[in-house]
Amino acid sequence: MNSIWIFEDVNLFNLLCPHKFKEYKTCHDFDSYNKGDYIYFEEDSANKVFLIEKGKVKIGYYNSDGTEVVKAILKKGELFGERAIFGQQRREEFAQSIDGNTSICPVGVDTMHELMRSNKSFSFKIYKFIGFKFMKLERRLQLLLFKDSKTRLKEFLDELCNDYGYNCNQTGDHIINHPYTQKDIASLIGISRPTLNILMNELKDERVIDFNRKQIRIYKTSA
Fold first, then answer.
1. Of all residues in the chain, what percent carry a pLDDT higher than 70?
2. What distance in Å separates the CA atoms of residue 69 and residue 61, rounded to the nearest whole number?
3. Direct distance between the N- and C-terminal alpha carbons of the chain, in angstroms, rounded to an integer
4. Alpha carbons 150 and 202: distance in angstroms, whole number
5. Which residues of 110-142 are buried (b: 16+ CB within 10 A; e: fewer)?
6. Which SMART domains match (predicted)?
């Protein structure tokens, strides 16, 4: 598991974007999106994968009653739309920019297959990353289906700690510097923003955590 967590820290944009490859650089452009712009919709043709140069992208779908379900919020260096590599013909989700200045590196499926065929190490890293991403998504869906709101939040904070945390040498507390807004976190664990505020403040009153806009401290005594 540790090797997979370490792999997640790799900036896939630097590894994969065709702009970095001499044979593709002259004919390759980046796509820019404003906040709220869609990169693709459900049922769109799945003929590309995408890497985030900067900004954030929300991946989700709508239930039959129109309720939005957020599967992931991705940041710089991450890959999405990757099921096209395995032959997906139509999108089963939407991808939407949630940052005011998002830049995307689109990679055609044929180009991706060429890169993977020509470099076994490259291909292995792609499969490993996709496998990790599926594991993470499955874990989050299990949280949404089987856990109450407070437990979902506490387990999500543990996930954030694995992704973005470090130990504070003075106190032994876990310090998490993360890229998410409260709206992002609420969407990812399937609760409203007001409910998130209530739960965060409950944990703060219980001396489990302290937090501000971009940092969460998990106290050592709460472990």
1. 84
2. 5
3. 21
4. 9
5. ebbeebbeeeeeeeebbeebbebbeeeeeebee
6. cNMP (SM00100), HTH_CRP (SM00419)
Which pLDDT belongs to residue 169?
Answer: 56
pLDDT surpasses 90 at 46: yes
- The least confident of 106-110, 133-137, 194-198, 206-210 is 133-137
DSSP tally for the chain: helices H, then strands E? 8, 12
Q: What is the pLDDT of residue 168?
A: 60
Residue ranges of E strands in the chain: 31-33, 38-40, 48-54, 57-62, 68-74, 79-80, 94-97, 102-108, 165-167, 174-177, 209-211, 215-218
Question: What whole-number distance in Å separates Cα of residue 29 and Cα of residue 99?
Answer: 20
* pLDDT beyond 80 at 80: yes
